[in-house]
């Protein structure tokens, strides 16, 4: 597999901002205390160096191919195509099978790349990351195990108590789990705790699990993750002769969305991001940033769309722990605001029903996160009614860690 | 430079001591108690830093995060913090400057221009924004807006920041420069004097601005050591910790008073 | 990916026996009640037809590539190579990453192929299989969901009570779970129950999860499974320029072993099968058929090596539920007896330690089954001390369903 | 053809009825009780089938599997089954033939030759091996070895087997052919007379061998229906079910006796 090389086609400016030329609105930047300035400067310098380092890129790609297994198939889904109305009505629906990655989601691609970068370019020996019971910690812990790096995962005491598959796997991979008892004992204090840890140990690197955080993280994470989309674009050309007519991806922070969308930004592909509508956006209990009334705000080192109560960051409410984030990456917000990415949403109930449908009809156990996108994609594709289109849905993870809750839901609904 | 702030450094210089600046989160544990605490603090401090709580702070220790949570649960917001300061100021000596410390998002959402106006209205003398960044457009806007109303913008620098960063920060910094004494976070570890000295040396090469030192200063001994090298000593977690442990205690303000009284003994040069 | 076509290079005779020419010993056959004769004849006839049906093979391969994801990478494991003494001493160790398959083991390849065969060649609408808390039921249930077949899984009441990840996923895939309360309420009565169900419904097909059972199952299952080895052989050639010097695979029934070994039978590759030594073979509490004193016997429709107490089939004792089988496939027993496959064994304790080692050092969570082979392979490779060799280990599954037990083991041993 | 078996069919023909063959697993629930049961059965049955238990049987119903488990827990093995039959035979009428029914593995492990010899020693008249297969080398060996000692090899056929399979089976079948009445398993469902008739028609086209019918025959009515078309009616699960439900009951043998007595009434042609 020859991997199409990375090309920067949507760079932020030198201060890490994407600028909406129509109104001057900026997205991104680095809003951090001076304590972190040197750490970020090191990462930024290293990142620029890494992109030019052919040996580094070759070594990284080799591991992504053979360790993470990034060359996953694109499956023509006859079942989804039929559900949307059939080939003759809506064209064909394809699934990018990121669920088949090592550690079962798109997350390991950025996690491994970041850790490989930390080891070979920054020459650090220790990785810090945080988690809210999601896939990122597991993926980072695996990468650290493989690369012989120490791994420190910060997790809120409340999240930690909900013993779950990914948390336990993180421990098996040898990560040191720092339980955070501050404030709400959930994701946000865990992040603060992780950043504090990074402030006091410049000999380590902080890994962000999505295209969020201070510059250069949003750019760097989507650059690492874009290998998924670069391969997918090539595969799609081989299968269909062209680029996808539409691309659908779920959006929490935006890493799985950008991994696929980035290489298609300059193509004629219509790009749809799907947010978690929780109990329904109108109820106010949701996980949708763009469609849920998110406004420009500044958090976790970046300027982006954020859902807030007055000036405080809102709690997001969603069945999918991977979408439990009241903001989205700055590049994503920018691409929405300039009209390049359209947003849709599905409710938790729709996602849960889609989970059962996929298990039963597709023989695939999608991550609950991916169920939001499948639901919205089917709805949108039905509306488009164009038999000449080829649709691509990012199946960004596998649902092993959702089994207990989903089985309960199934039994309650039968 | 804000005049009230200038005065305290001038006065301390004459008295051959450094200034004591006390920090608490505003409206912690509630509006009424917070007001009493601030009034009590005004008896011992040369200036008072009031934290504007933010639920997604990234640079605070557990002690301060808990204070933020208490304050938010008591209904704290930027407007109420201004109201609190205004009320306190009306009841204490006019010449004690107040500084608002906080994160950018609450200011950004409140609107930077309105924030500057409120500073003026409430007679706030200075402002610290932990996560502002010299390259951010908002940083420039804050500096400009505050300057117009004669409120000082106070910048943080860390021991790990180099000269070029310090120089850039000084361009937008007035009244004093805040040197973070440890490469950690507020309240988390002990003051690191070696780091502080290194930072001060760097600053002194390019500027004569007064220097305040904070983070990790808790005991009279800490105060004493830092006073030897800095123009102001900033004490936060030490006070907030007392609040956290005595939210229901009638003697809370007294405890803070005697804590500060003791610290004051370490201010001599 | 062009898949190397299947070629029959080790056929059984027309009655389904492999014959040891040295002593006339036969392996295989079809030892079943006459009630099943027509069912088996239908399968046998269909199997012959399927192999010649180019459209069928093409359709099957497409699904195996894109649904099961059979084109998994081969990873050069620097970590294992170093553990065995380093490149300069022992050559290189590679891992075939079957753990990255859909449903996380080699099992789905046979499971899907068998169900696809049942649907398109036998034209049946219903699949019957049995399980003892292992991967096979999950894989069969997935295939049935995807292919729109009914699926009936027989499971002993005792096994069913141990609620576990794979069982729950099987239910999510929509399989009908038949709980068997007969006799020991474990795997064997579940098998009897499944076979009875097949006897009374000739409109369904029975799917066997390993290279075992009456003719033509052992031949058919290894034929379907061999696509793994055919691809691996081609990949290995691309990577190293030749065939593996050694191949290591774990052996319960023998399906993951044969999947890799079959295409290499006529090559100069030394082939090693690894059995579960349980508490130690000498203790009598083990899961080893060949090394554990298995003798020729007749069970579950086949003649093969079996561990017995007098004439009753012994219970096998092993940490790995996938190796919990007191026999092995007839072709495997034959290949052992003619000297083509050498056998090794690891104890449960060695396997469990290997699990922790792989998690911590390789960033890989192997199925506990695969840990037996990794342990024995390292031992054997160290002994061989040949720097010109390229070793291939079949990493036949991922360990999600082992996490709870292994974390307990880790915590007890730290 | 074994003489004892030939005689029962001859006798029944004269009496214008079919034979009753009773089946139980040997040594179920234990050696002593099993002996009593077999002696009781001999009062009503023309022949007795004794199951040699196997823990990995693939064609047995829950009822028989449980019987196998009870027998094995009581120490049953092939040798003891022979001992049991020998002892029972010494205490009952000489002319009641015994048939051993079971799976191939116990025989194969016991050794086929030794098995034939034991049959002779214990005066076993016939032998059924559920999972033997006409193409298996062991099948031929069993047939040859049993033939040498004048023990009948009795083959099973199913309603789903075609003529060619039946013909092949008949080549190694003596005394009678065992037609499985349902496409299910022992004891699982009701007798399917349509299937039976179809099978018998097929057999009759190629052979005059007596035909026994078993699987699913439990009531007098079942017996009566089957007797019309077959030469022997084989009842197993019906009896074993009584054992399973009365393992600790003093009246167990009596219950079996009266059950069989009632069934006998249905044997008339
Ligand atoms: C499977 C899966 N999909 C999506 C997400 C959301 O992250 P992002 O929006 O960055 O892709 C997560 C986060 O954990 C995830 O695990
Ligand atoms: C991962 C894994 N490996 C190995 C086995 C053993 O089966 P076989 O010996 O047929 O490969 C199993 C059975 O469930 C399994 O799940």
Question: Mind explaining what this structure looks like?
Answer:
The complex is a heterotetramer, with two copies of chain A (414 residues) and two copies of chain B (269 residues). Chain A contains 15 helices and 16 strands. Chain A is globular, with a radius of gyration of 20 Å. In chain A, the strands form five sheets. A six-stranded mixed β-sheet of chain A has the order 3-4-16-9-10-15, with helices on both faces. In chain A, strands 7-6-5-8 form a four-stranded parallel β-sheet. By secondary structure, chain A is an alpha/beta fold. In chain B, strand 8, helix 10 and strand 9 form a beta-alpha-beta unit. Residues 184-188 of chain B have low confidence and may be disordered. Chain B is globular. With 269 residues, chain B is α/β, with parallel strands linked by helices. In chain B, helix 3 crosses helix 11 (237-245). Chain B has helices spanning 3-14, 31-41, 62-73, 78-91, 104-110, 112-122, 137-148, 163-171, 193-206, 220-227, 237-245, 252-264, and strands at 19-25, 47-52, 98-102, 126-129, 152-154, 156-157, 177-180, 211-214, 232-235. In chain B, strands 5-4-3-2-1-9-8-7-6 form a nine-stranded parallel β-sheet. The A-C interface holds A 65-67, 69, 71-76, 79, 97, 99-102, 141-148, 165, 168-169, 171-174, 356, 359-365, 400, 403-404, 406-407, 410 and C 65-67, 69, 71-76, 79, 97, 99-102, 141-147, 165, 168-169, 171-174, 356, 359-365, 400, 403-404, 406-407, 410. The complex binds pyridoxal-5'-phosphate (PLP) (2 copies). One pyridoxal-5'-phosphate binds next to helix 6 and helix 11 of chain A. Residues 105, 107, 134-136, 210, 250-257, 322-323, 367, 369, 396-397 of chain C line the site of one pyridoxal-5'-phosphate.
